[in-house]
Amino acid sequence: MRILPYDNHDTDPVVELITGIQIAEFGVATSAEKQPDLRDIPGYYQSGAGNFWLAFEGDELVGTIALKDAGDGVCALRKMFVRREYRGKERGVAAGLMQTLLDWAGERGVAEIYLGTVDVYHAAHRFYEKSGFTEVARHEVPASVPLMDVDVKYYCYRF
Fold first, then answer.
1. Among 27, 67, 71, 130, which residue carries the largest CB count within 10 Å?
2. Helices and strands (DSSP H and E) totals, the chain
3. Alpha-carbon distance 126 to 57, whole Å?
């Protein structure tokens, strides 16, 4: 497996991976059109402490993770998705993506990372908690952190 920062890659596989998991696998009420950030990854994610990473097995895109700089040492973890057949501790894709993001953020002096998620991603909730994130109330998430209208659970990682 290789984890690379986004660098002018074709966005179609990124959109297909993410929306396929969101909609087809979990039935989340969203669409590619409701996520214009996926078509402008450099403009949306790759500034300040932010970045966007792609995990590949051979030439196949198998996972994504993004860090959005929200200012004042605060970032948002976004777009963490791993293709179903590549999930699990033994494959290490999610752990590799998360470690890449946390190392990057730590090197850039990020103090807190927040994320919002939907209720049906139970395995993801456990993964975030094992990765050092703690659940927080919605009102604890800074207004500068972008969330999706479908988010109902919130987490924070503090360095």
1. 67
2. 4, 7
3. 24
